[in-house]
Amino acid sequence: MAKYPFTCALVTGASSGIGQEIAVQLAMSGVSLVVVARRADRLESLAARFKNVEVIVADLSTTDGVASVEARIVDSSKTPIDLVVNNAGFGSSGLMHEIDVDRLSREIQLNVLALTRLSHAAAKAMVPRSRGYILNVSSVASFQPSPRLAVYSATKAYVTSLSGALHEELRGTGVRVTALCPGLTRTEFQNISSMEQVAREFPDFAWLETKDVACAGLRDVARGRALSVPGAFYKGLVTV
């Protein structure tokens, strides 16, 4: 397994997909974990597999859920967190005016507001220590408008833009910020976003594995890169 410069990492959306794989790779490398998600049973399964895993059950689409994670990030009485991975998020597929507006509001709350508050808390805690890492999971959808994924791609455009700006703001402080922008990756996202039919239209070569995405993101944030785009196909696509 790769060796990372992190000692304790907090990972949101750690119960499945990319977030779960990031948590597993970190734990296998000996990094202590704070895992966050709504599904307690899946987090407890992670805690049973590895040592030094702290579980926080929280819904980050709610004010109370975000506040509980913010409090842990800035808590100086516990092991300091030197890597925050903002992975929690979801999408909505379809024509915007036909999608329930409350669902879209929750999507913005989770993908944008929760990520912003947790990035703020992380920077606030890390800058005085002159050390830390923030990995915000975005998407290649952030680089252009995506009809039928309008709100999702807009939230990810925000994430990529915010992360790039923070990368520059925090230059020289010892805190590194990276936006991880994967392309199509087989996770529960397609089911939650009602994209199963659309997903079947893409060829096999367009799909990434969660293990490769997680590895790329962790490698690039450790190296201090502003942007991480896994896979040669998507690197070329983003350039175009």
What would a concise description of this structure say?
By secondary structure, the protein is an alpha/beta fold.
Helix-strand blueprint:
Elements lengths: L7 E5 L4 H12 L3 E6 L2 H10 L3 E5 L5 H12 L8 E4 L14 H26 L5 E6 L12 H20 L5 E6 L8 H4 L3 H4 L10 H13 L4 E2 L3 H8 L1
Parallel strand pairs: 1-2, 1-4, 2-3, 4-5, 5-6, 6-7
Helix pairs in contact: 1-8, 3-4, 4-5
Q: How does this structure look, described?
A:
The protein is of the alpha/beta class. Helices cover 45% and strands 14% of the residues. It contains nine helices and seven strands, in the order βαβαβαβαβαβαααβα. The chain has helices spanning 17-28, 40-49, 63-74, 101-126, 150-169, 189-192, 196-199, 210-222, 232-239, and strands at 8-12, 32-37, 53-57, 83-86, 132-137, 175-180, 227-228. Strands 3-2-1-4-5-6-7 form a seven-stranded parallel sheet, sandwiched between helices. Helix 3 packs parallel to helix 4. The longest helix has 26 residues, at 101-126. The chain is globular and about 45 Å long. The chain starts with 7 loop residues before the first strand and ends with a helix.
Quantity of strands, as a count: 7
Strand order of the largest sheet: 3-2-1-4-5-6-7
Largest sheet: 7 strands, parallel
Q: What is the C-alpha radius of gyration, as a whole number of Å?
A: 17 Å
Report the helical percentage. 40-55%
Q: What is the terminal separation in angstroms? A: 33 Å
DSSP helical segment count: 9
Structure class: alpha/beta
Topology order in helix (H) and strand (E) letters: EHEHEHEHEHEHHHEH
Shape, principal axes of CA atoms: globular
Instruction: Show unreliable segments.
Output: none
